[in-house]
Amino acid sequence: MSDDTRYERGRERLREVHGDRSLATIESMGDLGRLIVEVAYGDVYSRPALTTRERQIASVAALVATGRSSQLPVHIRSALKAGLTTEQLQEVIIQTATIAGFPPAMNAWSTLKTITSEGEGVA
Amino acid sequence: MSDDTRYERGRERLREVHGDRSLATIESMGDLGRLIVEVAYGDVYSRPALTTRERQIASVAALVATGRSSQLPVHIRSALKAGLTTEQLQEVIIQTATIAGFPPAMNAWSTLKTITSEGEGVA
Amino acid sequence: MSDDTRYERGRERLREVHGDRSLATIESMGDLGRLIVEVAYGDVYSRPALTTRERQIASVAALVATGRSSQLPVHIRSALKAGLTTEQLQEVIIQTATIAGFPPAMNAWSTLKTITSEGEGVA
Amino acid sequence: MSDDTRYERGRERLREVHGDRSLATIESMGDLGRLIVEVAYGDVYSRPALTTRERQIASVAALVATGRSSQLPVHIRSALKAGLTTEQLQEVIIQTATIAGFPPAMNAWSTLKTITSEGEGVA
Amino acid sequence: MSDDTRYERGRERLREVHGDRSLATIESMGDLGRLIVEVAYGDVYSRPALTTRERQIASVAALVATGRSSQLPVHIRSALKAGLTTEQLQEVIIQTATIAGFPPAMNAWSTLKTITSEGEGVA
Amino acid sequence: MSDDTRYERGRERLREVHGDRSLATIESMGDLGRLIVEVAYGDVYSRPALTTRERQIASVAALVATGRSSQLPVHIRSALKAGLTTEQLQEVIIQTATIAGFPPAMNAWSTLKTITSEGEGVA
Questions:
Q1: How far apart are CA E105 and CA A34, in angstroms?
Q2: What residues of chain C lie within 8 A of the CB of B6, using their CB?
Q3: Residues C29 and C3: beta-carbon distance below 8 Å
C-alpha cells in the first residue's frame, strides 16, 4: 500500500471513529498529524482482530491510567459512539482505578459525566 | 454485605480469574492483600456490566501503558483464559503503543511471547 | 463489619479529614465515589498505625511525585488541617523534588502558595 | 557555605541516613553522585523542619507511587532505621495504593517483606 | 565556590537561558526557587560539555515524555532562543512520540504552535 | 512511497543507528516490530531536520525521564556510535535529573557506566 492510500484510509477511519472535528484538529498538526492519521488510524485502528468497541476499552483505560486528560474526552465520545454504554465506561474507569489509583479515575469520571450530561456534547 | 462475605466472594473471583497461585501470592500480602481481594475482586471484578474478557482488555492496556511489568504476566494469562486470543492481545499492545509509546509495548510483546510459547506456562 | 457500617465510617472520616465540600464531591461520583468512601476512608484512612498528619505527608508526596495536580489542593488543605505547617509542607515538596524532579515540585509550590495566601481558602 | 563544606555535610548526612554502603555507591557516580550528596543530603535532608522519620514517609511514598523500585530498598531500610515500624511502612504502602494503584504497592510490599524477614539485611 | 557565588552564577544563567520573567517566577518560590537557581542553573546548566541548544533538546524531550506541560512553554521558548528552529523542535516532539506515545506529543505540538504563531510571545 | 520501500528504508536506518542485533530483535516482534521499523526508523529517524546525534540526545533524555530502562542500553550505545561522548551522555543524564528526579538518573548512570566500561559491549 502506498503512503497516499494509507493516508486516505486513515482519514476515513479517523473520521468514522472520532468525527470531523477531530480529523480537522489532527490534520492541523503538520507532520505529527500525518503520522497519527497514517499510523494510528490508517494502520492500527484499521486492523481487524479487535472491534472498535474493544479498541476504545483499551484506549480509554490507557489514557486514564497515564493521566492523559487532554485526549480523554475525544476517546470517551468515540467509545460511546462505538457502542459502550455510560455504565460500561464507568466500569472501565473503576477497573483502571485498581491499577493506577483513585485520582486519575476521579478526573475521568468527571469528564465522562460532563460528556454524558450534555447528551451529544462537543469537544 | 459483610466484610467476610465480600472477602469470600473476592477469593473465589480472584481464583476464577487468575488461578490458585495468584490467590496464594495475594493472600500472603497481609492487609494489602486483603484489600486487593475485597476491593479489586470482591467488588470491582464482580460487577456485571463488563465481561471478564472486557476487563482484561482494560487491565492489560492500563498495565502496559504505565509500565507495570511485574503484574503483566498474570493479567496476560488471565486474558487468554478469559477468551482473548494471542492475536487480540497483540492488538491491545499495539493499540497501547499509540498512547504510551513503543518501549512499554516492546516489553509487553516479549512477555506475551514468552507466555504463549510456553503454552500454558506458570505464573 | 457490614458495607453500610464501613460506608458510614468512611463518610465521617472523609468529612473529618477533608470537609463537607469534598465529601459532597466524592458522593456525586456514583459507584467510584462509594468505593473511595468505603476503601480510602472507611478502611485505609481509618487504620490507626499512622496519624492523619503522617498520612497527609505520604499523600502529598505521592500526589506531587505523580503530578496528580487535581487532587493536590484538597490534600494540601487537609495536611494543614491535620497539623502540618506551611514550612513543613514546603519541605515535603522539596523532598519530593529530589525524587520526581523540579517541575512537579514547582506546580505544587504554587498550589500551596495559593492556598496559604488565602488563609483558610475553599476547594 | 562553600561547596566543600556542603559536600562534607552531605556525606555525613547520607551516611547517617543510609549507611556506608549507600554512600560508597553514590560516591562512585561521578558528578551525578556529587550533586546528590550536595543537594539531596547536604541541603534537603539537612533542613530541620521535618524529621528524618517524616522525610522517609515522604520518600517512600513518592518512590512507591512512581514505581522507582531500584531505590526503594535503600529508603525502606533508612525508614526503619529512622524509627518507622514495619507496620507503619505497610500503612504508607497501603496509603500510596489509593493514589497510585495496587501494582506498585504490591511490589513495594514484597520488597519490605524481603528486607524485614532478613532482620537487618544488606542493600 | 561559595553558595552566594553559585547563586549569582545561577541567576545570570537562568536569565540568559529563560529571561527575566522566568527568573522572577523562580525567585518567588522561596527555598525551592533557591535550589533551582543554584542546582539547575548555577550547576547543571553552567556545565560546559553540552551547549545550551543541546540541553534544550534534552529538556524539551524529557518534559514532553513526562507530560510536564506547565514548564514546557518556557523551555520551548528557550530552545528557540538557543538556536533550535521550529522545524527542529517539531522533530524533537515527533521523536518523543515514538517513546512516550502520541497524546503528550499532540499537547506539545499545540504549545509550540501557539508560541511560534505569536512570534516572540510571553510566558 | 510504498510500504515496502518504507520498510526497507526503515530496516537500513535501524541497522545504521542501532546495529544488526537490534534489527533482529525488532524484526522478531511481528506486527509491532514492523510498525517500529516503518514508523520509528522508516519515517521518524529518516527525517533530515535533526542529526542522529541530536535524535539520540532526545531519545536518551525521554527514556531516562520515563524510566524506560529496557530500551536505554541500546539507545546509549547508539548515542555513543552517533558521536556523543561519555561525558556528554553524563550531562544528558544529569540534565534529565532536574526534570525527572535523581532515581531514574542514577539507574541511567549505572547503565552508561556498564556499557562504557565494556568498551564496545553487546546489548
A1: 13
A2: 3
A3: no
Distance separating alpha carbons of residues D109 and E3, to the nearest angstrom: 40
pLDDT tens digit at each of 123 positions of chain D = 777 899 999 999 999 999 999 999 999 999 999 999 999 999 999 899 999 999 999 999 999 999 999 999 999 999 999 999 999 999 999 999 999 999 999 999 999 999 999 865 444
ipTM of the complex: 0.92
> Rg of chain E over CA atoms, in angstroms?
15
- Which chain B positions have a beta carbon within 8 Å of C2's beta carbon? 1-3
Q: Check: CB of residue D74 under 8 Å from CB of residue D17.
A: no
What's the whole-model pTM score?
A: 0.94
The three-state (H, E, C) secondary structure of chain E, written as one string: CEHHHHHHHHHHHHHHHHCHHHHHHHHCCHHHHHHHHHHHHHHHHHCCCCCHHHHHHHHHHHHHHCCCCCCHHHHHHHHHHCCCCHHHHHHHHHHHHHHHCHHHHHHHHHHHHHHHHCCCCCC
Q: Search chain B and give the residue with CA nearest F29.
A: B109
Q: How far apart are CA F63 and CA C117, in angstroms?
A: 38
N residues, chain C: 123
Type of residue numbered A44: V
Q: How close B30 gets to chain D, by Cα (Å)? A: 9
Query: How many DSSP H helices and E strands does chain B contain?
Result: 7, 0
What is the length of chain E? 123
Any CB–CB contact under 8 A between E88 and chain A? no
B70 Cβ under 8 Å from any chain D Cβ:
yes
